[in-house]
Amino acid sequence: MSDRLWMVVPAAGQGRRMGADRPKQYLEIEGRPVLAHTLKRLHAAYPEARLVLCLDADDRFFDPRFVPFEHWQRVDGGRERVDSVQNALNAIDAEDDDLVIVHDVARPCVSVEDLRALVDNARIHPGGALLAMPVADTMKRETEAGRSAHTEPRDGLWHALTPQGFRFALLKRALIHAQELGMAVTDEASAIEAQGLSPKLVSARRDNLKITHPDDLALAAAILSLQAGNSKE
Fold first, then answer.
1. What is the 3-class SS of the chain, one letter each residue?
2. Predicted model pTM
3. pLDDT 10s digits, 188-200
4. Is residue 15 pLDDT above 70, yes or no?
5. Would you list the domain boundaries of the chain?
6. CATH T-level topology, domain 5-123+162-197+209-232
7. pLDDT in tens, 141-154
C-alpha cells in the first residue's frame, strides 16, 4: 500500500462575512496571514507531505513565501469548496491508495498532535477519518419564526472539524457520486457516508477554531500564543 500523503487546502473563498478588504485567509495574526499560520502548522506535523493549494485564479494576495512545503502545487479553486477539492484531485498524480488530507485554510490552530492522530486513523480505517468533537451544549430545533421548538438529544452528536482524510480513489469516487446525486457536500465525510461507509470520528481539541467572524481573529491569536507558550514548557 502506498505511503504517500497529500495535503489539500481549499483557499479560494472570499470570506465576505468578515467585511474586510481581502479574503479571510489573508487577514493577519501577529503580522502573518492566516494562510501562512495554517500551512506552518500542517508542515510541522508532516513536512514530507505534498501540498495542493487551491486558490482563486485572480488571487492577488498570495505570496509563494507563505508555503513551507518542499513539494507543493497551486491549482485553481472552484465556486464551492467541493469544487476546489475535486480540482485538486484531478490535478495530482496520485495512486489509488495514497492518503489525501483536506483541511480548512481558516483553521490555523489545529494541533500537531491532532493532525498526527487523524492521519494515523485515516490510514487504518477503510472509510477514512475526520477530526471531530462531541457536542457539549444543549441543542435546540428552531421554528420558522426563529423560536425554540424543542430540545434535540445530543447523545451521539459530534461537531465535524478538519482535517478529514481518505484514500485517493475512495474520495474521488465519492465526490463524483455525490455530484451525480445532486448532494450538497458540506464536508468530505458526507460524501463518504453516501457511499455506505462510516468514517472514524477522531476526538479533537476544542481550540481547533474556524475563523469565520471578525472577532475570531483575536481569539485565534490568543489560542496560537497559548499553544506556543505551552510548547516551550
1. CCCCEEEEEEECCCCHHHCCCCCHHHCEECCEEHHHHHHHHHHHHCCCCEEEEEECCCCCCCCHHHCCCCCEEEEECCCCHHHHHHHHHHHCCCCCCCEEEECCCCCCCCCHHHHHHHHHHHHHCCCCEEEEEECCCCEEEECCCCCEEEEECCCCCEEEEEEEEEEHHHHHHHHHHHHHHCCCCCCHHHHHHCCCCCCEEEECCCCCCCCCCCHHHHHHHHHHHHHHHHHHC
2. 0.94
3. 999 999 999 999 9
4. no
5. 5-123+162-197+209-232
6. Spore Coat Polysaccharide Biosynthesis Protein SpsA; Chain A (3.90.550)
7. 999 888 999 998 88
